[in-house]
Amino acid sequence: LWRQGKGDYFQGLLFLPELSTPCLSVGKVLIQLKKQHTLLHKVNGVLMLVIFFGCRVLLFPYLYYAYSRYASIPVYAVPLVAPWQCNVGASVLWVLQLYWFALICRGAFRLFTNRLHPPPSYKGDPDCSLSSTNGCRPHHTDKEMDKQ
User: Fold this and answer.
1) Which of 48, 81, 87, 96 supports an S-S bond with 23, CB 3.0-4.6 Å?
2) Do residues 60 and 97 make contact, with C-beta atoms less than 8 angstroms apart?
3) pTM, whole model, 2 decimals?
C-alpha cells in the first residue's frame, strides 16, 4: 500500500536467503567445539544443504518465473524487459550462490565419504584437530621452511 506495489514482493523475497544463516552459525559453533564428527553436525549439514539450495540457489530463477507470471510474459522474455541493473545484480548474486553451494556440496561429500574416523590430532598442539573443515594447519618451523 505505502509504495503502491513497487517491488515489495520481490524485496521481501530477498530476505529469504537469511533462513540458511542459523545452520551456517550452528555448523561453525560445532566445529569450534570440536563436534564436527557428531550426528548433530551431519544433520545440520544436510539441513543447511537443503535450505541453502531452496532459499538461495533457486531464489533467482523463481524471481524471474514469478515476474513472468505477474507480467503475463514467457520466462525467457523476462531478462529482455527487466531493467539491466536487475539482470546484472541477479546474475552476480546467483553466481556467488552457485559457487558457495558447490563448496557446501564438496564439504558434505567429504564429510560423508572420507570421515569414518576422526582425523589425528597434531602432536605439537593437542587442541588443534587437523581437518580441512576447520582450516587448522600444522605450523612449519624456520628450519623446515629453509629446507624448501
Assistant:
1) 48
2) yes
3) 0.66
